[in-house]
Write a structure and sequence with these properties.
About 55% of the residues lie in helices and about 15% in strands. The chain is α/β, with parallel strands linked by helices. The termini are close together. The structure holds adenosine monophosphate.
Length: about 180
C-alpha cells in the first residue's frame, strides 16, 4: 500500500505519519527527514539541498527523485510506504507514478491534511527547526501554493484525493486520516 501525504508546512504530516505507519505496518518515507540526514552526514547531496532548504525553497526535482528512487530499491519499502512530503511538484508526482508502475504498483490514496493559515503559522513559530524562521516559512507557503497545490487536481482526477480536516486533537485527526485510507481500497 502506497499512500501519499499532502499538506502545507505545519499541517502535522510528520506527527501523523509516525503514528500511521505503526498502525498500518508500512514504511515511512519522509523526504524532509532524508534530506536532513544527508545534511547531517555532510554529503554532497546534503550540501546542495541545504542551500534550498535554508531559503525555504523546494529542492530541485532531479535531486529529490533520485533520492526517492534509491529508497524504493530497499526491501522494507516493497510492501508499501507512507510518502510524507513527497511528491511536492507535478514532476515528482509523475516520476513517482512511473517508479510505482515499474514495480506493478500504484498509489492507494493521496491524503491532504487541511489546516487554517493562522493556525499553521502559530504551529510553525512554536517549532524549533533550523529552517523555521519567519522569512523561510513564508517562502515555504509560497512554494506550497505554487508547486504543491496543483497536485490536488492531479490526484482528484484519478479519484485518489482524500481531504481531511486537520483541526482538533491529534487523536481526532488521526482517526479521520485512518478512516480515509481504509475507505480507499
Ligand atoms: P519537510 O520536512 O517535509 O517540511 O521538508 C523540509 C524541506 O526539505 C522543505 O522545505 C524543502 O526545502 C525540502 N524538501 C522536502 N521534501 C521535498 C520534496 N519532495 N521536494 C523538494 N524539496 C523538498
Amino acid at each position: 500500500m502506497f499512500v501519499v501525504f499532502l499538506g502545507p508546512p505545519g499541517a502535522g504530516k510528520g506527527t501523523q505519519a509516525a503514528r500511521l505507519v505503526e498502525t498500518l505496518k508500512i514504511a515511512h518515507l519522509s523526504t524532509g527527514e532524508l534530506l536532513r540526514s544527508e545534511i547531517a552526514n555532510a554529503t554532497e547531496l546534503g550540501r546542495q539541498a541545504n542551500e534550498f532548504i535554508q531559503k525555504g525553497e523546494l529542492v530541485p526535482d532531479d535531486l529529490v527523485v533520485n533520492l526517492v528512487s534509491t529508497q524504493f530499491d530497499l526491501p522494507e519499502l516493497a510492501p508499501g510506504c507512507l510518502l510524507d512530503g513527497f511528491p511536492r511538484t507535478l514532476g515528482q508526482a509523475q516520476a513517482l507514478d512511473q517508479e510505482l508502475a515499474k514495480r506493478s504498483n500504484r498509489i492507494r490514496a493521496a491524503v491532504e491534511i487541511q489546516v487554517e493559515q493562522h493556525e499553521l503559522e502559530r504551529r510553525l513559530m512554536s517549532r524549533k527547526r533550523d529552517d523555521d524562521n519567519w522569512e523561510t516559512i513564508r517562502q515555504r507557503f509560497r512554494e506550497y501554493q505554487e508547486e504543491t497545490v496543483p497536485l490536488r487536481d492531479y490526484y482528484r482526477k484519478q479519484g485518489l484525493l482524500r481531504q481531511v480536516d486537520g483541526a482538533g486533537s491529534q487523536d481526532e485527526v488521526f482517526d479521520r486520516i485512518l478512516a480515509a485510507i481504509q475507505e480507499s481500497s
